[in-house]
Amino acid sequence: MAIKQLLTRRRFGLLACGGLFAVSRPLVANDSTAAKAPLFKISLAQWSLHRTLFDGTIDNLDFPREAKRTYGINAVEYVNQFFKDKAKDLDYLGQLSQRAADEGVENLLIMCDRLGKIGDPDNAARTTAIENHFPWVEAAKRLGCHSIRVNASSAGS
Questions:
Q1: Residue whose C-alpha is closest to residue 115's, from 123, 125, 106, 105
Q2: Phi and psi of 151, rounded to 5°?
Q3: At the N or C end, where does the chain have fewer CB atoms within 10 A?
Q4: Is residue 76 domain-resident?
Q5: CA gap 96, 60 in Å, rounded
Q6: Residue 133 lies in a domain
Q7: pLDDT tens for residues 74-125?
């Protein structure tokens, strides 16, 4: 049987979480002074709601509120496709940042898509792709994000 059939990503995640729970459970059960902090923090990737964002059910500016109020999540990861013409719009970025702050939501990163191939073998195309990311680095800084995520695609092997 192929490894892919034996261990899917979902099965691995379930096994890993189960293992962590099993190991940590006796420690928590025996320590009545243990903090009530979660075992780990999670964030909501905006792409998780891409259908509702693309169809207009949720506006990009409302994403932090949706993450907090609907899902109880305090950190978000944006996707540039949902505000692709706003990377240099300081008023818009200010509104988005303020809305996140109002909800107590931390802006973690911006996932940058469709800006070119960072690993393009052609120097000019690669340089253009890199430069296309600069406004998003600035936007991430304005939002208080720690990073952007790039697609380092290329041609060949």
A1: 125
A2: -100, 110
A3: C
A4: yes
A5: 8
A6: yes
A7: 999 999 999 999 999 999 999 999 999 999 999 999 999 999 999 999 999 9
Helix (H, G, I), strand (E, B) or coil at 33: coil
Q: What is the pLDDT of residue 87?
A: 98
Per-state percent for the chain, helix, strand, coil, to nearest 5: 55, 10, 35
> CA–CA separation, 131 vs 150, rounded Å?
12
Both structure tokens of 154: 């290329």
125/112 Cα distance (integer angstroms) = 17
**Residue 28: how many other CB atoms lie within 10 Å:** 13
How many whole angstroms separate alpha carbon 133 and alpha carbon 111?
A: 10
Q: Looking at residue 122, which CATH number applies to its domain?
A: 3.20.20.150
Residues of the domain holding 47: 41-149
In a domain, 3, yes or no: no
Is residue 51 situated within a structural domain? yes
| DSSP state letters, 36-86 | ---SS---EEGGGGHHHHHTTSS-GGGHHHHHHHHH---EEEEEGGGGTT-
Beta carbons within 8 Å of 51's beta carbon, 6+ residues apart: none
